[in-house]
Amino acid sequence: MSVKVTVEPMRNENSVAFILDKSLLPPGTGSSYPNREKAQSNPLAKALFEIRGVSSVWVLGNEVQVTKDEQVTWGSLKSKVMETIKRNA
């Protein structure tokens, strides 16, 4: 069964919330991955950091918040992030 992912912009134009139709963590819990090294213990976060331009990842319940580098556009990044989430969620 495929995971449905919707995208919601955030106040910070470099961050986007990807909302899944399933929970990745129990409600009220979250994990922060501020860099590639910290993401090694989480397969989804690790895979997201393989995408050029991803600078941090938060996993919160059914939400994955991704922050990108300023020099990269969401137009070139969003579909790659969505596919990675669908493959690894």
Outline the fold blueprint.
Elements: E1 5-9, E2 15-20, E3 30-33, H1 43-49, E4 54-60, E5 63-68, H2 74-88
Antiparallel strand pairs: 1-2, 2-5, 3-4, 4-5
Helix pairs in contact: 1-2
The pLDDT mean sits at 95
Poorly predicted spans: none
Which CATH architecture is right?
2-Layer Sandwich
Share of residues in strands: 25-35%
Q: Indicate the overall shape.
A: globular
Overall helicity: 10-25%
Structural class: alpha+beta
Q: Which radius of gyration do the C-alpha atoms yield? A: 12 Å
Note the total helix count: 2
CATH topology (level 3) name: Ribosomal Protein S8, Chain: A, domain 1
The CATH superfamily turns out to be Scaffold protein Nfu/NifU, N-terminal domain
Q: Which CATH class?
A: Alpha Beta
**Taking strands numbered 1, 2, ... along the chain, how are they ordered across the largest sheet?**
1-2-5-4-3
Structure description:
The protein has 89 residues and is an alpha+beta fold. It has a single domain, classed as Ribosomal Protein S8, Chain: A, domain 1 (2-Layer Sandwich), CATH 3.30.1370.70. 25% of the residues lie in helices and 31% in strands. The chain is built from two helices and five strands; from the N terminus they run E-E-E-H-E-E-H. Strands 1-2-5-4-3 form a five-stranded antiparallel sheet, covered by helices on one side. Helix 1 packs antiparallel against helix 2. The longest helix has 15 residues, at 74-88. The protein starts with a strand and ends with a helix.
